[in-house]
Amino acid sequence: MTHVTVLGMVAGVMTTVSFLPQLFKVWRSKSASDLSFVMLFILNTGMLLWLIYGFLINDIAVIITHSVSLVLASMILVFKVKYQYIQPRRRRIQAEKVRTQLYREHVLQEQRSKKEPLKKEPPKKETLNSRSNPMSPLTIPD
User: Fold this and answer.
1) Is the residue at 50 inside a domain?
2) pLDDT band of 125, cuts 50, 70, 90
3) Is the pLDDT of residue 52 over 90?
4) Would you say residue 75 lies in a domain?
5) I need a surface site. Which of 15, 125, 131, 138 has the fewest CB within 10 A?
6) Is residue 63 part of a domain?
7) Is 138 among the domain residues?
8) Distance (Å, rounded) from C-alpha 104 to C-alpha 93?
9) For residue 51, what is the domain's CATH number?
10) What's the rounded Cα separation, in Å, for the pair 44 and 51?
11) How far apart are CA 20 and CA 15, in angstroms?
12) CA distances in angstroms from 85 to 14, 28, 37, 42, listed in the order given
């Protein structure tokens, strides 16, 4: 190994290790809202291109460091998508289901309270000789 290769490896290891604190922070906090999706996407694309370049020039330092860096940066990108886009959507869907269920239960409860059995007496049959109301059109005076 030449001095140039060692220098490249040390620089690559330091660059690669620099992703670990951010990865652990995102993983522990379950939040990546402060990280730019576009920046992470461009960073991962750039690292992929560096990896391809390393294979083309057959440079082991570039290949190893950018392989590991690409994995770590990709994990951060996956967490970003998971915590900022997928989980909130799932929470909204679940909250909507709960709201809908509560609303249905509320409506059913109101319907039940309105449908209490009414104590109705059977209607009285009016007869032609009924004298209960002298002004009733059905009554016939004697």
Assistant:
1) yes
2) low
3) yes
4) yes
5) 125
6) yes
7) no
8) 17
9) 1.20.1280.290
10) 10
11) 10
12) 31, 17, 11, 18
* Confidence (pTM): 0.57
Averaged pLDDT for residues 88-108: 78
Helix axes 3-17, 60-81, angle to 10 degrees: 10
Q: How many structural domains are present in the chain?
A: 1
pLDDT (0 to 100) of residue 26: 87
Query: SS3 for 2?
Result: coil
25 and 70 in contact (C-beta within 8 Å)? no
**Cα dist from 102 to 83, 96, 97, 112, whole Å:** 27, 10, 9, 15
Are the beta carbons of 65 and 13 closer than 8 angstroms?
A: yes
The number of CA neighbours under 13 Å toward the Cβ of 62 is 15
- The residue range of the domain holding 78 is 8-84
DSSP state of 100: H
Residue 51 has pLDDT above 70, yes or no: yes
